[in-house]
Amino acid sequence: MPSLQEWIHKMEVGEGTRYIMVVAAVLGLLALTALYDIREFKNFSTEEAMDSAQLARNIAEGRGYTTQFIRPLSVLLLQRGATPGIPVLQKDHPDLANPPAYPVILAGLMKLLPIQYSMKSPFRTYQPEMLIALLNQLFFFAAVLMVFRLALRLFDSGVAWVSAIVFAGTDLLWRFSVSGLSTMFLLCLVLVMMWCLVVIEQNSREGTRGTLWFVMMGIAVGVLAGLGALTRYSCGWLIFPVLGFVLWIAGARRWLVGSAVGVTFLLVVSPWLARNFALSGTLFGTAGFSVYAETEVFPENRIERYLNGDLDNEIEVAGAGAIFRKLMSGTADLLKRDLPQLGGTWLAAFFLVSLIVPFRNPALVRLRVLFVGCLAVLSIAQVLGRTHLSSASPEVNSENLLLLVLPVAVILGVGLFFLLLDQIEFSFAPFRVAVVLGFVSVVCAPFALTFLPPRSSPIPWPPYYPPWIQDVGGWFSRDEMLMSDMPWAVAWYGDRKCIWLTLDAPSDNHRKSAADFFSIYDYQKPISGLYLTTLTSNEAIYAAALKSPKVAWGEFMQTSLIKKSMPSGFPLKYANSRFMEEGQQLLLADRVRWNLRSK
Questions:
Q1: Mean of the per-residue pLDDT values of the chain
Q2: What is the pLDDT of residues 376-403, one digit of tens each?
Q3: Which of 181, 118, 69, 97 is nearest to 491 (CA)?
Q4: Backbone phi, then psi, for 529, in 5-degree steps?
Q5: What whole-number distance in Å separates Cα of residue 356 and Cα of residue 368?
Q6: Using alpha carbons only, what angle is made at residue 214 by residues 212 and 215, rounded to the nearest 5 degrees?
Q7: Which residue, of 45, 48, 94, 258, has the greatest Cβ tally within 10 A?
Q8: Alpha-carbon distance 228 to 595, whole Å?
Q9: Is the torsion defined by CA of 432, 434, 436, 439 positive or negative?
Q10: 531 touches 483 (CB < 8 A)
């Protein structure tokens, strides 16, 4: 048994020093997290976060993979495959927008932990969203650890520590960690996949492993790539640079290992794609139409709100030309804004230069080629998959795919910094430490500045004030359906079925001007309530809506609020005056419900 003196020696100069540094880093990260969450936590402000959360709750409560956020496009796709004459909205609505991995993880969290969906007064933070944020911060910490391990394998301990600190001090990543999006989980998947590929490359070059080991590693890579695609469909495109990399570095076993990667990937994703095809006749459900979003034929969110008409013909009219123009304009924006600002710091300048600087480590050189391939594929996927979500939240959104290669970009950028630093001869050793600390301080400055006053409100108002939305849900029963301009929020906070606004709004000539609205009301399911917010009254949205030949919901809302009148024959005639006076919102119902107890 080691003596006390030996223990002290280990703690001072031996392996104990490393443990002390690790414990100090973990405690520091936990303290930083507590401070950040106290000061900077914000309730959900993105459509995708609320959509995933309400879907997860349905799973956790045994309702299956069904959604209460109903897109008109989803109704159209499901009705095509349904029995003629049987409305699809008369039963639970299967989700066709989200891949299953992240909602299933959130559902597991909701099953394990005591979730309090009711809101206390005065309201500041929503407990389920705080728990989801903590889960994503655990994924974030795991990603920091993997950045450290990957950098240590490719460089040395100095690069590894600085890479981990810079990565952990990136303000944009912290904002994603509390956003409720799946980005942190995806970062973990990508980092583990990168680690596996680096290990395959090194062992292939050194010839230290047998064929079975390479096949098993190929299977692991295929599973990780498949899980990535089942977390965010656009990440499935990573399989192409990954397969190319495996075929390049696996030597004589390249076809065997490549087959293991490709076949495993297909086995992971195929059952889900088959489910989508059986329900809707499409492999990716409504998500597959995102390539047409924000084109001249389908501006803003029009494609997801499409219900009646000849969709196939309109897509044919859009054609490859509209997609090509979207690609060209989007690529210009990506090169001018997204790529140079990757991660929200000027470290991007270092990693871009590192792409042309020669490194001695062959594993690093080959990883850099893989990085370029992934960057190119994700750039194209991000541009073509851009929808209104990127406009609503320009940085923190699920369409920010370039963030998934940020860990490797940080490692390459920090590696270049140390390569340049090694060229300088310091007459006084602490000067080198001071330069490194200065580098870290400047890169992490945006994150440090978030802790300065003023403290922002955790409530994303306008348009989201969760207690009001929960009140709205409580005034309607579970078997009733609402319509809103933010159905994702009604589904999550109100726990009620809610369909997105149709492309037309009622007017005095209501049956002709609102064919979409009444095709739902008359032939699918009666709409018991209409909830319009500042998303509709917003001047920019209102002006854009006026370009439509159909009556705009902004015009309908303006008439209802100012003139206090509804179109003749419109079935929802009872308005809640509180919402009009306090929030400039419009809540209409088929009868007075405001005094009912929440169910």
A1: 87
A2: 999 999 999 999 999 888 889 999 999 9
A3: 69
A4: -150, 150
A5: 10
A6: 65
A7: 48
A8: 47
A9: negative
A10: yes
